[in-house]
Amino acid sequence: MLLRISLPVLLFTAALVPGCSGSVGDNGNSVVPPPPGDGGVDGGVAVAVAPKSASVLVGASTAFTASVTGTTAGQSTGVTWSVQESGGGTVDSNGQYTAPGSAGSFHVVATSVADTSKSASGLAVVSVPSSTDTTGLIPQDRVTVWAPGVPGGVPTYSTISATIDAATYGNGTTDAAGAINSALTTAGASANASSPKVVMLPAGTYLIRSPITVGSSYVVLRGAGPTQTKIIGQTGGPMIRMGTSSTKPG
Q1: φ, ψ at 58 (rounded to 5°)
Q2: CB 145 within 8 A of CB 138
């Protein structure tokens, strides 16, 4: 069965309220002209400076540029340059800014020649370079020295207290944790600042079923290298404990 649906024609009318100016759009809505200075009507002289912000080292230079719009015939589109803060550096007639000898943030101002009440500015962020930040872009109170690892470096102790051979424990097939911990305890009993001790694990694979604990000062557990001495764990928890509470996850 074929259904036909007729749509009524709707007529729209638009009325203007007396005393209001404007026009009527195709959809019946009134269209109001844009206000002056909002893109529809010339809002007068305007100045813009680029870049809005620039980073520069003490004593170095960087360039700012200015554009002037809204002038009428015969008016200058030029600007005069200045630095707002006293001691904030200098700027020449072309917008070339030279930073002072101290850090800070300073405003580089361009003022219209045609209308001296109109101006704009760019921010010059002046920084001091350091050994950790040669660019000088990081504020001095935020600069730190990144020194990961063991404070003072990995100890270079040379006295070998005990050597645990991987072959003795099946090169990874028999639990070696007891022997390693026993050697560390023995070394710790006599180790001191003038006589540090080393428990050596030569190349090979070491199986541990309980955590290894390095709990004494001046004792080092040393392997033959990252690809040579390997410890495999089945401890159900941490593999190596440092001190009495610190742990290294397995």
Answers
A1: -55, 135
A2: no
Identify the band that residue 5 occupies on the pLDDT scale cut at 50, 70 and 90: very low
218 or 154: which leads in pLDDT = 218
Does pLDDT of 62 surpass 90?
Answer: yes
Which of the listed residues 108, 139, 170 is the one where a domain comes to its end? Answer: 139
pLDDT at 37 over 90: no
pTM of the model: 0.42
Pairing of strands 23-24, 53-57: unpaired
Give the pLDDT score at 134: 66
Residue 108 in any domain: the answer is yes
Go through the chain and tell me how many residues it has. Answer: 250
DSSP 168: G
Domain membership of residue 186 (yes or no) is yes
> For the domain that residue 110 is a member of, what is the CATH number?
2.60.40.10
DSSP class per residue in 104-167: EEEEEEEEESS-TT-EEEEEEEEE---SS-TT--S-GGG------SSTT-S-----EEEE--GG
In a domain, 80, yes or no: yes
In a domain, 194, yes or no: yes
What is the domain count for the chain? 2
Q: Which two tokens stand for residue 202?
A: 């030569």
* Residue 204 structural domain: 160-248
